[in-house]
Amino acid sequence: MNESVADFQKIFTDYHPRILRYLGRLAGEPEAEDLTQEVFVKVSRSLHTFRGDSQLSTWIYRIATNAAIDRKRSSSSRQDAEQSSLDDLDEIEGLDIWTGEEPPSLEQQLMRQEMYECFSDYVDMLPDNYRTVVILSEIEGLPNNEIAEILGTSLDTVKIRLHRGRTKLIQELKTHCKAEDWL
Question: pTM, whole model, 2 decimals?
Answer without folding.
Answer: 0.61
